[in-house]
């Protein structure tokens, strides 16, 4: 995902950092942002990446913890958040078992998600504009193929 951000230059993102090649990637975030830090960190790594995520936050930044690729029950530094007046929030997307049960239910009942429009990746700006307008009912999809 980080490589995709750097390659496609999504609005608001300029650079990507390979966290495996740079285990202390928070330093790179601070360097790239001239000491400001990241306004938003979406952490999908779990307990192994939480400390770096907090360290990379800007003052008043938000840490969104989505998943746990390296497991759960990691430590989030209260002082790391307090000294930056930062916010931590969680986003639970369910387990693999939850997903498989949902998929089986959808197949059994022939349910399909409502797709508003599919955009090629090159037209991601058009997809963002449609989302910003708020005049859609179904999902807005980027085709990565």
Explained architecture:
- The chain is an alpha/beta fold and 145 residues long.
- It has helices at residues 2-8, 25-32, 50-55, 78-82, 96-108, 124-133, and strands at 38-43, 57-65, 87-90, 115-120, 139-143.
- The model is unreliable at 1-10 (pLDDT under 50).
- Helix content is 34%, strand content 21%.
- The chain has a three-stranded parallel sheet. The chain has a two-stranded parallel ribbon with strand order 4-5.
- The protein has six helices and five strands, in the order ααβαβαβαβαβ.
- The chain is globular, with a radius of gyration of 18 Å.
Defining key terms:
single chain; 145 residues; alpha/beta; 3-stranded parallel β-sheet; two-stranded parallel sheet; 34% helix; disordered N terminus
Can you summarize this structure?
The protein is α/β, with parallel strands linked by helices and 145 residues long.
How does the SSE layout of this entry go?
Layout: H1 2-8, H2 25-32, E1 38-43, H3 50-55, E2 57-65, H4 78-82, E3 87-90, H5 96-108, E4 115-120, H6 124-133, E5 139-143
Parallel strand pairs: 1-2, 2-3, 4-5
Structural class: alpha/beta
CA-based gyration radius: 18 Å
Question: What distance lies between the first and last C-alpha atoms, to the nearest angstrom?
Answer: 15 Å
Order of helices and strands: HHEHEHEHEHE
Strand content: 15-25%
Could you name the ranges where pLDDT drops below 50 across 5 or more consecutive residues?
Answer: 1-10
Main sheet overview:
3 strands, parallel
The level of helicity is 25-40%
Order the strands across the largest sheet as they lie in space: 1-2-3
Number of strands: 5
- What number is the mean pLDDT? 84
Work out the helix count.
6
